Known about the structure:
The protein is mostly helical. Among the domains are: about 15-65; about 435-605, CATH 1.10.357.30; about 640-740, Dsl1p vesicle tethering complex, Tip20p subunit, domain D (Methane Monooxygenase Hydroxylase, Chain G, domain 1, Up-down Bundle); about 760-810. It contains 28 helices and 2 strands. It has helices at about 1-25, 35-40, 45-70, 70-105, 110-150, 155-170, 175-235, 245-255, 295-305, 310-325, 335-360, 365-390, 395-415, 420-450, 460-470, 475-480, 495-510, 520-545, 555-570, 570-580, 595-620, 640-655, 660-685, 695-710, 730-740, 740-750, 760-780, 785-810; strands at about 460, 485. Strands 1-2 form a two-stranded antiparallel sheet. It comes from Strigops habroptila (Kakapo). One of its GO terms (biological process) is intracellular protein transport. Keywords: Coiled coil, Exocytosis, Transport. This is Exocyst complex component.
Amino acid sequence: MERGKMAELESLETAAEHERILREIESTDTACIGPTLRSVYDGEEHGRFMEKLEARIRNHDREIEKMCNFHYQGFVDSITELLKVRGEAQKLKNQVTDTNRKLQNEGKEVTMEELKQCRLQQRNISATVDKLTLCLPVLEMYSKLREQMKSKRHYPALKTLEHLEHTYLPQVSHYRFCKIMVDNIPKLREEIKEVSMSDLKDFLESIRKHSDKIGETAMKQAQQQRNLDNIVSQHPRISGGKKFKKEACASSDLEVKNTSPMSEQDSGILDVEDEDEDEEVTVPGAQDLVDFSPVYRCLHIYSVLGARETFEYYYRKQRRKQARLVLQPPSNMHETLDGYRKYFNQIVGFFVVEDHILHTTQGLVNRAYIDELWEMALSKTIAALRTHSSYCSDPSLVLDLKNLIVLFADTLQGYGFPVNQLFDMLLEIQDQYSETLLKKWSGVFRNILDSDNYSPIPVTNEEVYKKIVGQFPFQDAELEKQPFPKKFPFSEFVPKVYNQIKEFIYACLKFSEDLHLSSTEVDDMIRKSTNLLLTRTLSNCLQNVIKRKNVGLTELVQIIINTTHLEKSCKFLEEFITNITNVLPETVHTTKLYGTTTFKDARHAAEEEIYTNLNQKIDQFLQLADYDWMAMEPSSKASDYLVDLIGFLRSTFAVFTHLPGKVAQTACMSACKHLSTSLMQLLLEAEVRQLTLGALQQFNLDVEECEQFARSGPVPGFQGDTLQLAFIDLRQLLDLFIQWDWSTYLADYGQPTCKYLRVNPTTALVLLEKMKDTSRKNNVFAQFRKNERDKQKLIDTVAKQLRSLINSHHS
């Protein structure tokens, strides 16, 4: 049993092995079938294998037969086609045979050497084609390089040169033309450097010419920003969603850190247009006016060539030279505002370009270089402005210059440059502006004072009255009650001067705008300038009017009245300044206005001038005095000149009704004292060597006329006989001589109750000597009359006693 099972297993294994060999024979290539058959013959069951092989062949034959039967018609057609092909093939064979025969016949004439030569040529042509295939890309690259350089595409040309040098030329380096190219490569690099440098120089020249336009554009943008800020500050609700174009430009500048070279079509213009601003009229960006691509290309070319430091040094050096040229102001810059504007535009344009270069290149310029240039520019600009602004005498031009400097500072501050020194300098210009204002207002005040009629302002109706009250703060209940027509106490120059002071304050306020000053600083500046206007300019103008030779008493009286009202208006000027600066006058360190002092000084000067003028008028009348000092008898009335003088004084003091009482009283007392003193001098002057008692009595009549004037009270306010005391010296002296009361005088001299207390013995002696000489010369025979002899002796005795009094007084 076991043997039977083992035999069966072996039979199965053999059958499986034969099946595997048959499949291998069917699937294996004929060239590799040997090892397979060998494994059959090496075994012991090749007989059985042959049986299986025969059986497999029969199976395949049956399958072939089936397939042939299925494709029989196609097979027949194929055989038919094959027979046709055989016929055509026979024709082709005949043609080939014929051609071969002809070729053999023709070839008999060709020698073997010629054939070899042709084959050599064929190989040479083939080798030449191969070599040209290698050389043509080199030549094409070189041609491309030349074309790029011709079209000024220098950076692509440099890239082409690198490819040519490192990729193509090494493959054909053994050719002579390649060696020439290799030798030319340094020259080509230098040529590219020179051409790109030439483009850079053109660029530098271009931005030098366009700096003015670039700066103008940048300052327009800054002006737009300021206007927009003002609108936003006035209407905060509409500020959402609107931003200034320059902010967008600045943000884009921060994003544009492009260090790759510009393409040939790229002009370097920054796209800063805002689609949301289509409705607004936009100013082109400052960088839109210049093509920056040459500097970018040159920078990258020099970087690739390893000469970046040389390029940076050259660029900075040239820009420094340009900066010095830009910062040199024209000699006539101070003549017009356009001169200053062009100067500022060039400076702004220069630094806008540098700022753009700083933000769009890496390291060509750095912040330290920009700061160094700005420090130099700031110092030179400030020095130039100080020099040229000092020539300006027109306050309007100074104010426009200030606004231009503020715009200049705001523009550059928007690009990150510190401008505090410019605002500090504006405070210096403010002092100059104040001086030019003072000069201008000096002329204004002079015109007002010169054109004034120095008469109270008449008003005929309510409209005119309200107009004047609206111009000048004046309130008078009594004047309001009076019917029309009526008069204001002051003349026209009062409201005019008051309004011009307010205009001056407004002019000062205009300069303080946009200077970033606090309200206290503005208030202090206005008050100081106004004080200068009052204490120096207006005061000088008033003093000049008062001191004029042709000024009359009426004008002086009106000036006193006017300055009194202007003095009262000073508190309203204080309130006016407080309202426009919002700084209360009680604030610590607030400057007070000195207008009160100014008008008081002017009034006092006018008062003194009135006193002087009155005295001069009195002197003019006294020059008309024509006394007959030898007259024996007086006339029945006072001298004509004195009557006229008294009449003048009466009419003059009648005009003083509007003056403060003290001023009128002082003027009257001063005039009487001066008249008394002048009459005394007239009596005692050396030219009058002799006088008679009759002349003295005539003189007494004149003095009595003066005393009558004093008693009449030409100016109210004097108590009792106060005004008459001005003539007390003359009165006592004349009474002493006319009454010949020497005994009383000599007896009571020196006592407080003396009747002739005001008579000086020296004065009495001088007058006595003149009467003594008269007695001697005019009365030749008087010595023969006892009465005359006694009188002469009495005069001598009195004179002797007077001398004794004088000597004792001196001792």
